[in-house]
């Protein structure tokens, strides 16, 4: 190991964490060339491809490595949070119709295409421009870009390094959520913890909000597949040995490192454009149900949780440029960060933590402590405690769907199998996960959200 391994967890959560290979993976990551300070995991950690999901690793810039396993196959999977002006108490009756309308507007399911069919030239524009492409083509307002991490665009994107096969997979997938863990969800604010920050974010008790969780779809997956294959062949040329072949990596400043990074940025841009178009469809569905009286759906924030970014961080008292890999980890920058919209600058960035379709989700705020402890990062969800197959064995989907309905949660899903794999028992207790990040000081609790309708892939 080149650096120590750092685990943020409680004793209770450790019981689940030690059951899979995630801690072995954490240790393996600590051996990678150029890693700084520590190999880190968040309390929602679970086993992933090479790197654990819930992992953070910062590598020296530019000689340290970049590893696709530290980002994940769903490049820029992330979450968008929309805030409405309506209260749940006045609108319970409309929730079921809203869930059906959302399901009709947002194509869901594996490989499902959307209504937008791009030409290859248009797709290249999307890959270069990210969410800007969406607003330039009438899907949302320019103002919304200020409420996205990196304003919805990574400038280093180069579509030339995205293969034809990857592009073909993306041509009809804008505006779609995909399968399984991805969702569009209607929630309400059950509770606020920090009234000052809640007010700054425009959140209040009882308010209806919506979550959109998806990423770069088949295009991002293909980018990862293509470049992992190339890196596997190139790695020995750079004299790199890794304890697990899934940790394939090359120096960031190598030819293969630069090609992957530019393709990853392009896939990240596709994901931001995708969430922006879904958000526009969500607004259409909302208006169809509530009319003009439904008011505006305001973008509160859009965060990535599978990405690598070049950032400045203080390490042993010196400010250094590093390549921060966040794989199932959300950026959690504190107050003063210049990219934030002016009204959020005093309180830190919104950190959006989905829990599960039957429990709850959280909105947190980033802190300066996250810069000291975790390269400005936080957890990204509750994290799986059961594999998909174990969840399928344990959950009875038709019974679960009915139970959730009795609790006032309408579930629209492509299949019962999808519901079983995503059953709340498949996930850790999100409250315990959030308590750990809040107690460690890397994020502050702002609001707790309760679901009332979930559209699953
Ligand atoms: N509010 C909801 N949260 C959900 C749902 N399904 C999954 N999840 C949470 O999302 C995170 C992130 O997932 P990942 O696939 O990107 O790792 C996961 O850990 C769960 O806690 C849902 O339907 N609603
Ligand atoms: Mn995700
Ligand atoms: Mn994803």
Write structural notes for this entry.
The chain has 457 residues and is an alpha+beta fold. It has one domain: tRNA-splicing ligase RtcB (Alpha-Beta Complex), CATH 3.90.1860. The protein contains 14 helices and 17 strands. Strands 5, 6, 7, 9, 13, 14, 16 and 17 form an eight-stranded mixed beta sheet that branches. A five-stranded mixed beta sheet has the order 1-2-3-11-10, with helices on both faces. It has a two-stranded antiparallel sheet with strand order 4-8. A hairpin with a 6-residue loop joins strand 2 and strand 3. Helix 3 (95-105) packs across helix 9 (255-290). It starts with a strand and ends with a strand. The structure holds the ligand Nc1nc2c(ncn2[C@@H]2O[C@H](COP(=O)(O)O)[C@@H](O)[C@H]2O)c(=O)[nH]1 and manganese (II) ion (2 copies). The site of the ligand Nc1nc2c(ncn2[C@@H]2O[C@H](COP(=O)(O)O)[C@@H](O)[C@H]2O)c(=O)[nH]1 has 23 residues, from strand 6 and strand 17.
With helices defined by DSSP (H or I, 4 residues minimum), what is the helix count? 14
Give the termini separation. Answer: 39 Å
Give me the secondary-structure category: alpha+beta
Question: What's the pLDDT, averaged over the residues?
Answer: 97
Q: In CATH terms, what is the architecture?
A: Alpha-Beta Complex
Beta-strand residue percentage: 15-25%
Number of strands: 17
Q: At the first level of CATH, what is the class?
A: Alpha Beta
CATH superfamily: tRNA-splicing ligase RtcB
Helical content (DSSP H or I, runs of 4+): 25-40%
């Amino acid at each position: 190991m080149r650096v120590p391994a750092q685990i943020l967890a409680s004793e209770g959560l450790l019981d689940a964490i030690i059951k899979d290979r995630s801690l072995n993976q954490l240790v393996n990551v600590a051996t990678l060339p150029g890693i700084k300070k520590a190999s880190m995991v968040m309390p929602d950690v679970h086993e992933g491809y090479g790197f654990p999901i819930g992992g953070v690793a910062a590598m020296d810039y530019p000689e340290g490595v970049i590893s696709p396993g530290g980002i994940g196959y769903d490049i820029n999977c992330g979450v968008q949070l929309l805030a409405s002006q309506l209260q749940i108490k006045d609108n319970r009756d409309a929730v079921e119709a809203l869930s059906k309308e959302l399901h009709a507007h947002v194509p869901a399911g594996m490989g499902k295409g959307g209504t937008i069919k791009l030409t290859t030239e248009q797709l290249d524009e999307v890959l270069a421009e990210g969410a800007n492409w969406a607003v330039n083509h009438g899907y949302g307002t320019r103002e919304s870009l200020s409420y996205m991490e990196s304003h919805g665009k990574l400038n280093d994107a180069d579509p030339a390094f995205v293969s034809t096969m990857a592009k073909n997979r993306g041509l009809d997938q804008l505006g779609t959520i995909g399968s399984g863990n991805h969702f569009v969800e209607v929630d309400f604010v059950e509770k606020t913890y920090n009234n000052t920050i809640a007010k700054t974010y425009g959140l209040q008790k009882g308010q209806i909000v919506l979550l959109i969780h998806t990423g770069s779809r088949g295009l991002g997956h293909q980018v990862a597949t293509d470049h992992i294959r190339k890196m596997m062949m190139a790695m020995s040329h750079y004299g790199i040995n890794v304890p697990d072949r899934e940790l394939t990596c090359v120096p960031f400043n190598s030819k293969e490192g630069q090609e992957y990074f530019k393709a990853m940025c392009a896939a990240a841009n596709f994901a931001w454009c995708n969430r922006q178009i879904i958000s526009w469809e969500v607004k259409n569905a909302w208006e169809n149900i509530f009319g003009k009286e439904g008011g505006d759906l305001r973008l509160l924030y859009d965060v990535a949780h599978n990405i690598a970014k070049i950032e400045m961080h203080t390490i042993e008292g010196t400010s250094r440029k590093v390549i921060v890999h966040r794989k199932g980890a959300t950026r959690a920058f504190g107050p003063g960060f210049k990219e934030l919209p002016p009204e959020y600058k005093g309180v830190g960035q919104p950190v959006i933590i989905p829990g599960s379709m039957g429990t709850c989700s959280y909105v947190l705020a980033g802190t300066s402590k996250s810069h000291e402890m975790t390269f400005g990062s936080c957890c990204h969800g509750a994290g799986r405690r059961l594999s998909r197959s174990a969840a399928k064995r344990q959950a009875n989907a038709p019974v679960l769907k009915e139970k959730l309905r009795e609790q006032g949660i309408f579930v629209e899903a492509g299949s019962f199998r999808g519901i079983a794999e995503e059953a709340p028992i498949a996930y850790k207790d999100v409250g315990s996960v959030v308590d750990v990040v809040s107690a460690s000081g890397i994020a502050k609790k702002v609001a707790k959200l309760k679901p009332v309708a979930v559209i699953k892939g």
